[in-house]
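Give me C-alpha cells for this 244-residue protein.
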Amino acid sequence: MDPGSPAMTLDLIFCLLAGVLSCLTPEALLLFPLLLGAIGASGSASAIMTAAGLGLALVANGAMAEWLGTSLGFEAMSLRWLVCALLILQGIVLMRRSLVERLPLLTGGLERVFDTAGIDYPGGVLRQFLLALLVGANWMPRLGPMLGKASLMAADARNFRFALLMLFVFGVGAALPWLVSGRVARLLVRPIAGGLLRGMAGKRLLGLTLVCVAFLGLTGNDVLLVHWIDTMSPDWARKLAVTF
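Here you go.
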C-alpha cells in the first residue's frame, strides 16, 4: 500500500471517527479528567496539546509495551501500575497549594484562567499535555475494526509506522468530544461559578479526579465499573461505538 493512497486516507478518516465514537463506551469514563482540564484551559494551544497528548499516549501503548516486554521483560499490568502511580503523584501535586506554586510549569500555577479568555499560559499548556498523556496511557479503549486493523499492521514491519499513525489519529479523535464538552461547559460555568473554580479549587477537583481514576486502574475496579455500565447501555450505543 503506497503512502498517501486513497485507502490509507480512508483508514485515517475511519480512525478519527472511531476515536470520536469511543466516547459512547463505558471505558471512556477514564478520560473524564480531560473534561475538567478543558474547562480550566483557556486557548487553542491547550486543546491542541491535549489532543496530541492523548494521541501520543496510544502510540506509546502500542510501541513501548512491546519494546518493554521483549527487551526488559515488563508486563502490561506493570506498565499500567507505573502510569497509575504517576497519575496519583500528579493528583497530589495539584491538590497541594505549596507544590502548585513551586511547580508552575507542571501545574499551570495559580493564574485566574476564568478572568482571561483565549489566553494560554505555558504552565497550563504543559499541564494539559501531561494530563492527556497519563490519562490516555491508563485508558484501554474498546477494540473495534480500526484498532484491530492497526494492531495487525503493527505486527508487520512494513506497516508499523502507519499503524502508529492510525493510533495517533484515533487518540486525537477520542479527545475531541471531551474538548468540545469542556469548551461548552466553560462557557456555561464561567459566568455562574467561575469564581469557585479559580486558584486552587479547580485544581483540587482535578487532582482528586486523577487519584480516583488511578485508584480504579490500580485495583482493577475499572473493569467491574465498565461491565456494570455496559449492561445498562442501549444496544445502539454499543454497536455505534465499534462501527469503525
